[in-house]
Amino acid sequence: MNLPDYKEARKRNKNYKRIDYNIDKNYIGKYSGKKYFLKTYGCQMNEHDSENIRAMLEQIGFEETDDYTNSDLVLLNTCSIRENAHNKAFGMLGRFKHLKEEKKDLIVGLCGCMAQEVGVVDEIMKNYKFVNFVFGTHNLYRLPDIIDKAIIKNSQEIEVYSKEGDLVEDIPVRRENNYKAYVNIIYGCDKFCTYCIVPFTRGGERSRKKEDILKEIEYLVKDGYKEVTLLGQNVNAYGKDIYENYGLGELLEDVSKTNIPRIRFTTSHPWDFSDKMIDLISKYPNIMPSIHLPLQSGSNKILKLMGRRYSKESYLELFDKMKKKIPKVAISTDIIVGFPGEDEKDFNETLDVVKHCKYDNAFTFIYSPRENTPAAKLKDNVSLKEKEERLQRLNNLVNKYFLENNKKLVGEKVEVLTEGKSAKKKDYYYGYTKTNKLVNFTANDIKEGDLVDVIITDAKTWSLDGKLFK
Ligand code: SAH
Ligand code: SF4
Ligand code: F3S
User: What span, in angstroms and rounded, lies between the C-alpha atoms of 337 and 360?
Assistant: First the structure.
């Protein structure tokens, strides 16, 4: 048994090893005929981890089902970012408990970021004894072994490491989408924003070698993929831990030369977004003019308390530079309201920045105190009612700009990557623009994965309507 430990999780360990995934031959197909149900919470990194989990489960013989009542193994890949992500996962565990009362040999597992939390693992050991296994974000690749042990021993197997594990290449992957792929470029985060649990759940910043990333993308191109999203909690830090003069800019240039039609990257911290990056995005047509630039707050007082390392002024300077230099760029953001100490004046400063930036998309959250983070110790003097009211005011404002920006596109011709037929609108296809806007459009004789030109005919807050350009 290995339990999470925050003292270890805070340390940055430079001595991890780089290894290749290697599965014990005896496990291959061992559980064939058995079914698994996997539920994923959280960010794109977790979604991508689930693509690895699927492939590993299928290697040992399991087959996927979307009906958990009809499965032999249920697994939750969890997220710790806010309280409600926790509540959802624990709610699901409650349902599994009932199911297990009827189905005694059901195997229940939990992995992902919540597994790295001391309080969560304590709770599972005390009150969720029916959970068979827990493993963390640093030993995902050990899944076949951990599951096999849990099944054979029939005791609660907890294997969580708080130190960064080895950086493992060649973990099998079964991707959800045949045309768009996630590619990890850097793991972990060293920024330690005061409210955020990620540096504890995902460990220190560790970049993958450029050769491994480029090899993966070249395979994707051969397989007919049209888009890659380079993933990291803070992609701008790419390369700094392993190279002298090779960072995200250089990587983007090399990825661009693979001729994959569309390249995205997420998430960028405003603090180390270089001018070179801006030039590259405007120079290479296959680097998408779509940037996620989390603001969090427009008040310098709150930004300082959050440990964000930039001011409102430097954020706006960067924002304006992007808008000026990258033709038709779309910028999206994340904003937290109700951080401890945020008063009406601070909140209004956030609204002012939103009014200036008129974002194309924004993810807005009420601050949620997280276990072991510095902000959780700050006195929270904002009432829930006030927080909810601020969120509402903020949402009304951001939504207004989404619609305004979308309306500007009516009559324009845009390139769309077709994802398939719309489930909601009969005879419509759907796909995304270069700027990552959803378009529902009419067309004949096209198929999933086609890059097509579409004329925009109507604009809504969260989507556009259009027709194929002929
Ligand atoms: N690495 C990314 C953020 C990943 S988490 C970045 O720095 O941009 C995604 C978003 O969740 C954050 O941008 C933040 O807005 C929000 N978030 C993180 N911790 C939170 C907390 N404790 N309460 C509320 N929102 C939080
Ligand atoms: Fe969290 Fe900040 Fe790291 Fe983003 S940059 S993952 S908000 S600590
Ligand atoms: Fe959640 Fe972990 Fe991602 S906390 S947002 S799943 S890094």
Answer: 19
Strand ordering across the sheet containing 157-159:
63-64, 35-40, 73-78, 107-112, 133-135, 157-159
CA of 295 to the centre of ligand 1 (A): 10
**Does ligand 2 come within 6 angstroms of the Cβ of 191?**
yes
Query: How many angstroms is it from 366 CA to the middle of ligand 1?
Result: 10
CATH superfamily of 413-468: Nucleic acid-binding proteins (2.40.50.140)
- What tens digit of pLDDT does each residue of 380-397 get? 988 999 999 999 999 999
Cα gap 263→346, rounded to integer Å:
36
CA of 323 to the centre of ligand 2 (A): 24
- Give tens-digit pLDDT for 181-229: 999 999 999 999 999 999 999 999 999 999 999 999 999 999 999 999 9
Least confident of 162-166, 298-302, 402-406: 162-166
Q: What is the mean pLDDT of residues 12-19?
A: 82
Top CATH class, 6-159:
alpha beta
Q: Give the integer Cα–Cα distance in Å for 193 and 297.
A: 12
Instruction: Give me the pLDDT at residue 179, please.
Output: 97
Q: What tens digit of pLDDT does each residue of 286-315 get?
A: 999 999 999 999 999 999 999 999 999 999
Nearest protein Cα to ligand 3, atom 7 = 198
- Tell me the C-alpha distance between 208 and 243, whole Å: 11
Reply yes or no on whether the pLDDT at 164 is more than 80.
no
Torsion, Cα 265 116 193 253, to 10 degrees, reads -20
Q: Hey, where are the domains in the chain?
A: 6-159, 167-405, 413-468
Q: Hey, whose CA ends up nearest to atom 5 of ligand 2?
A: 191
Please tell me the predicted confidence (pLDDT) of residue 353.
Answer: 98
Q: Tokens 């390139």, residue? A: 415
* Residue bearing the CA closest to ligand 3, atom 3: 43
pLDDT(366) > 90: yes
pTM over 0.70? The answer is yes
Secondary structure class of 30 (helix, strand, coil) = coil
Quote the tokens at residue 144.
């076949």
Max Cα distance, the chain (Å)? 64
Distance of CA 122 to the CA centre of its chain: 26
167-405, superfamily in CATH? tm_1862 like domain (3.80.30.20)
- How far, in Å, are 4, 229, 248 from residue 213 at the CA level? 30, 12, 12
Q: How far is CA 366 from CA 10, 80, 374, 395, 403, in A?
A: 25, 14, 17, 11, 23
